[in-house]
Design goal:
Elements: H1 14-42, H2 49-76, H3 85-111, H4 117-139, H5 146-149, E1 152-153, E2 165-170, E3 176-180, E4 188-192, H6 195-200, E5 206-210, E6 217-223, E7 230-239, H7 244-252, H8 259-263, E8 266-268, E9 277-281, E10 290-294, E11 299-303, E12 305-306, E13 311-312, E14 314-320, E15 324-329, E16 332-337, E17 342-348, E18 350-356
Parallel strand pairs: 1-17, 8-14
Antiparallel strand pairs: 2-3, 2-18, 3-4, 5-6, 6-7, 9-10, 10-11, 12-13, 14-15, 15-16, 16-17
Helix pairs in contact: 1-2, 1-4, 2-3, 3-4
Length: 370
């Protein structure tokens, strides 16, 4: 059985515990089960030989299968998003099963001492079918796909509210800063990340609003390490009273420069009277999804994507008027409509910072400085 260890940046989740158990001891259990199934149905006279060889087969399958699974993923799905994740998960399961059979069949054939070719193929297929059923049941309690299964995936332009805000973000290359409407329209370049920052901190840049001049004038900057290093993008970006979270996020960078800091931060731009939906991250460090609850309607949902072969943390959450949420999902920026539980891809990128049109000093984008 092919298994893929999940790599997490900061937290140990139930899925990681399940994966570590699978890697260390699970292959022994699976090998024994597969070996006993083959021995019981095809050759009871060698009941010990089959389990021993299938244990070895499962460890080889785990190591080689991991490589082949990722090669297949990069080849077939070079750009994996919420739009094609359902197809990917289905294809990945079939691909993993085929690879398991291909890798472990030689061990089954060897156990039959190079005889009974057709029987060995059938025995291997049956053994893999049994082990996959057991493993799916084993991983199901610790896996999450609700960001796909509990929502409708649609193009954002079909359900986005009228444009009242801009989403500023760093593009997928980590080289440029753009802004875009939550509807996915009107993409404009704002500036670029210094090459020296790209080389030293390729994935650590974060957009923020910083009070450079004091009083009521705030600038758009990007920070690129835990020592409050920053670079100005737009001076006099917004004016007026900036919510407490923006100043607090800057102060907390030196203390919490991990992805966790951005998982727990939720910015709510709705008026107080329109906050029937409560949006927050999951309540503990064991999960990286998004929780939304409307007590008056008796509705709640937890949206997460954490499986054996794919994990998309949720971070940089902003709630817009009209109960729509812009947030980062893996390496995507998505828009979620809470009442209809509809989600769509806005763009690829990271560190989305959402600003209402009415808060901008100049609604036109500042030309990039070369």
């Amino acid at each position: 059985m092919i298994n893929t260890p999940l790599v997490l940046a900061n937290d140990i989740t139930p899925l990681m515990f399940a994966t570590m158990f699978h890697l260390l001891l699970g292959n022994i259990v699976i090998g024994v089960v597969e070996g006993l199934v083959i021995s019981f149905l095809f050759d009871r006279s060698h009941w010990l030989r089959f389990p021993l060889l299938m244990i070895l087969a499962n460890y080889v399958s785990a190591l080689l299968g991991l490589f082949l699974l990722h090669v297949g993923k990069d080849f077939a799905f070079p750009q994996l998003t919420i739009n094609n994740v359902g197809l990917f998960l289905g294809v990945a399961l079939v691909w993993a099963f085929v690879m398991s059979v291909a890798i472990e069949w030689p061990f089954v054939f060897w156990a039959f001492k190079g005889k009974r070719f057709r029987v060995s193929v059938g025995a291997c297929l049956l053994a893999q079918a049994v082990s996959y059923v057991l493993l799916l049941a084993f991983y199901a309690p610790s896996s999450w796909m609700t960001v796909y299964t509990r929502t409708q995936v649609r193009p954002v332009e079909t359900f986005a509210r009228p444009d009242i805000a801009w989403v500023y973000y760093i593009d997928e290359t980590g080289k440029n800063v753009y802004r875009i409407r939550p509807s996915g329209k009107t993409k404009e370049r704002v500036g670029e990340i210094l090459e020296s920052v790209q080389d030293k901190f390729p994935s650590a840049s974060v957009l923020a609003i910083h009070n450079l001049l004091g009083e009521s004038e705030w600038s758009l900057v990007y920070a690129f390490n835990g020592d409050l290093a920053w670079k100005l993008l737009i001076n006099r970006f917004v004016v007026g009273t900036v919510p407490e979270w923006r100043s607090q996020q800057w102060k907390n960078w030196t203390k919490q420069w991990s992805a966790w800091n951005w998982r727990v931060l939720v910015v709510d731009l709705r008026p107080q009277s329109e906050r029937a939906w409560l949006v927050r991250p999951r309540d503990d460090r064991l999960y990286s999804g998004l929780r939304a609850q409307n007590q008056s309607l008796g509705r709640s949902m937890i949206l997460n994507m954490e499986t054996l072969i794919l994990e998309w943390p949720s971070s940089h959450v902003t709630v817009l008027p009209g109960d729509q949420v812009v947030y980062q999902l893996g390496d995507q920026i998505v828009l979620l409509d809470l009442p209809s539980q509809t989600i769509g891809l806005v763009t690829l990128g990271q560190s989305p910072l959402v600003v209402l049109d009415e808060d901008l000093v100049d609604p036109t984008v500042a030309p990039p400085k070369d």
